[in-house]
Amino acid sequence: TTTGDYKDAVQFGLQSIRFGTRALNQPILWIPFGSMAEAHMLAGDRTAATECLERARELVRTNPSWSANVQLLCAAAAVALVTGNVDLALALIGAAEDGACGKEQFVPSPGVFEKLRIFRVAHISGPAVALELADAAKAMFRGRHPLHYLSVLAATAWVEKRAFGTPRAGTARELEAFDTPALAGWRAWETAEGFLS
Fold it and tell me: For the chain, is the Cβ count within 10 Å smaller at the N or the C terminus?
């Protein structure tokens, strides 16, 4: 999905599910369904994406854990953003933040979690507070985890555009990383969510 090969992403997801269902106990079987929801959305198949997300929800309900619930809420919020349902996305992000309260440093997919928090804070408290959160998140991931950093960078660009009309020069330079062909799908996802243009 990151490279933009959505058809193969779905096939790998289906293979992962086939392998996972053979196990007697596979508590993270919901993850490939969540990943396939993203691939289906980018491929333009909202129905399949919704079905995958619902199947992921069912699996998380049968084997609940706070981290799985937070990660699923973030995935659902991202899909809501892609469909243009900002109110639902904000509610799901709020629920994810509540679920992670006191355990934020242990959330799975911390870059996505921070990106969504930045988005919600911008809507609730305004761009100045969101930019503070974005700067802290960038500092946390800079030089440590490039993909988490890129998630937060996309949110930073979005907040700066809201605050100043355009991303700041340093942010604009860093955004050039999204022009890497290997990140075509990642850029498409950030664009579909509304973070990049």
Answer: C
